[in-house]
Amino acid sequence: MSEAFDFDLFTLGAGSGGVAASRRAAGHGARVAICEDRAVGGTCVLRGCVPKKLLVMASAVREQLAVARGHGWHVEGTLDWSALMAAKRAELARLERAYEHMLEQADVTLVRGRGCLVDAHTVEVEGRRFRARRILVATGGRPYLPGIVGIEHAISSDGALELEALPGHVVVVGAGYIAVEFASLLHAAGAAVTLLVRGQGLLRGFDDDVRAHLRQELVASGIDIVEHAELESITRDEAGLQLRLVQGPTLATEAVLCATGRVPNTEGIGLTALGIEVDALGRIPVDAASRTVVPSVFAIGDVTARPHLTPMAIADGRAFADSEFGGRPRVVGHEHVATAVFSQPPCGVVGLTEAQARERGPVRIFRAVFRPMRTAFAGLPQRTMMKLVVDATTDRVLGVHVVGADAPEMIQGFAVAVQCGATKAQFDATLAIHPTAAEELVTMATAIG
């Protein structure tokens, strides 16, 4: 390739997508550099999925202890929050070193600092300019905090992952997956939790039965959910924080977590000067090959309108590298994408919701709600919900939705079936593994609608 360029690829952002794309491109023989102004590893590894899951697993031990007692074990336990956070920090430091090592092993040059596009082939980082044949924007996203009076007293999901002490009471503002996950883990860890929902219902965009069942389980666990509650201001006094709502009473609490969405990190990186206009949410428009309106500039991950999922960013990054440097043009399908919500209980879903499927044509719906053996034997009230959405004409399974213990683990396997176009008849012909909760997904025989 031409020596007029310092690198064949320069990537902005060393998160999961940027690192995956850079390593794959380097593996194809490209000269690659990547810049990052924070710790290497990105949101998922250091400020999102991984640390959150560590806290979820730790807080879930409370229920495991209850199950153990129901099975005859005489066990008690208390959570040492400080010890948990110290262990989490140590694990994240290990992961950061691992990501740096992966880049080094792949012969990817790491440039410390924030990158900014100067022109279609030039990136500036801390006053240094680099010329590259192609540029990949993978700068990810950040938590959004509403512009209300006193918002400085609130914390985002980033701040919640750094709490030095567990508050006695927390108000979580939001209704999406981040809100319900943090509400669940903080409550299970021992905090009293109030979940403020501006509209009605949780997890907008998920299947209605998933939303309703999760709400029911969260309320049964002791989480207070207040709907149609819009936060107007936050003030601090000697007693703690006072939350004024647009309508309704003032709430007193020790901590406020705003889980009100995320926005792309696309500001101030030179996009507009190149003619790359972001949409109203700050997302970069790209084609199926991840290319922007500037042929040499590409974008993947949370800076685009694609599903904001780590595996999606990684898949799109690798497809970009294979296409541009490996001689294997390919794109990633963005349908039938499985996802999980690590609430307590967790949700696992893949494919269409019932409402989405009905917009396409006639459907058959199969649903089961039951107490799983593990908790039923222990005398605990938790119930699992499973649902299949089936095309009434072709018999193809269009959606699988699970709320209950191990739902994310189950849905990974069933996602393969949905991706392959499996039919309900093929589900029925699959012998169940008994006794398991997952067997319900291949034994539901009677449609309910």
Describe this structure in words.
The structure is a single chain. The chain has 449 residues and is α/β, with parallel strands linked by helices. The protein folds into three domains: 7-142 and 263-325, FAD/NAD(P)-binding domain, CATH 3.50.50.60; 151-260, FAD/NAD(P)-binding domain (3-Layer(bba) Sandwich); 345-442, Enolase-like, domain 1 (2-Layer Sandwich). The protein is 32% helix and 24% strand. The protein has helices at 16-27, 42-47, 49-59, 61-70, 81-105, 157-160, 177-189, 208-221, 310-325, 354-360, 373-377, 407-419, 424-429, and strands at residues 7-12, 32-36, 109-112, 115-119, 122-125, 128-137, 141-143, 169-173, 192-196, 224-226, 231-237, 240-245, 251-253, 255-258, 262-264, 297-299, 339-341, 347-351, 363-370, 384-391, 397-403. Strands 1, 2, 3, 4, 5, 6 and 16 form a seven-stranded mixed sheet that branches. The longest helix is centred in the N-terminal third of the chain and has 25 residues, at 81-105. It starts with 6 loop residues before the first strand and ends in a 20-residue tail after the last helix.
